[in-house]
């Protein structure tokens, strides 16, 4: 699994001009699922996300986690995170998992985030054309790939 995590002061996602998810202070997470991903990847990633110390403490140092600041989560499925661009100019998405694998894993990811954070994450709509808006706070943007845990 590959994620792009952005610390936000606010974020939202719309489908067909309707807001389907929105948060205030917290993390907006783009989630890419690839062939071979499983529950072990989900569990490791959710623990890592919820405990990342990327929020400012009283001295303005990034020393607090999502859990410590009571932040919210907006998680959006995004297969394009697995784009391969080595050949030509048209990205290949061959490594991105097909919906029969990625939908159940995305749902498991959301459940694991809720269990780990104690809050129900807001979400996008799998496979829909979405418009995502956010105010990146910092800016702070972090990528994590479960294939590169070391």
Automatic annotation (TrEMBL):
Q: Which UniProt keywords apply?
A: Cytoplasm, Hydrolase, RNA-binding, tRNA-binding
Q: What's an example GO cellular component term for this entry?
A: cytoplasm
Record CDD domains:
Dtyr_deacylase (cd00563)
Task: Please report, in chain numbering, the residue ranges of the motif Gly-cisPro motif, important for rejection of L-amino acids.
Answer: 138-139
Instruction: Write down the InterPro entries for this protein, in alphabetical order.
Output: Daa-tRNA_deacyls_DTD, DTD-like_sf
> Which reaction does this chain catalyze?
glycyl-tRNA(Ala) + H2O = tRNA(Ala) + glycine + H(+); a D-aminoacyl-tRNA + H2O = a tRNA + a D-alpha-amino acid + H(+)
Localization in the cell: Cytoplasm
Question: Which EC number(s) are documented for this chain?
Answer: 3.1.1.96, 3.1.1.-
Mention any Pfam family matching this sequence: Tyr_Deacylase
A GO molecular function held by the record: Gly-tRNA(Ala) deacylase activity
Q: What is the main EC category here?
A: hydrolase
Q: Which domain of life does the UniProt lineage start with?
A: Bacteria
One GO term (biological process): D-amino acid catabolic process
Task: Please describe what this protein does.
Answer: An aminoacyl-tRNA editing enzyme that deacylates mischarged D-aminoacyl-tRNAs. Also deacylates mischarged glycyl-tRNA(Ala), protecting cells against glycine mischarging by AlaRS. Acts via tRNA-based rather than protein-based catalysis; rejects L-amino acids rather than detecting D-amino acids in the active site. By recycling D-aminoacyl-tRNA to D-amino acids and free tRNA molecules, this enzyme counteracts the toxicity associated with the formation of D-aminoacyl-tRNA entities in vivo and helps enforce protein L-homochirality.
The Swiss-Prot or TrEMBL note on domains reads:
A Gly-cisPro motif from one monomer fits into the active site of the other monomer to allow specific chiral rejection of L-amino acids.
Query: NCBIfam families, from UniProt?
Result: D-aminoacyl-tRNA deacylase
Q: How does it assemble?
A: Homodimer.
Similarity comment text for this entry: Belongs to the DTD family.
Record-given protein name: D-aminoacyl-tRNA deacylase
| Organism whose genome encodes this protein | Ancylomarina subtilis
Taxonomy, top ranks, is: Bacteria, Pseudomonadati, Bacteroidota, Bacteroidia, Marinilabiliales
Identify the coding gene.
dtd
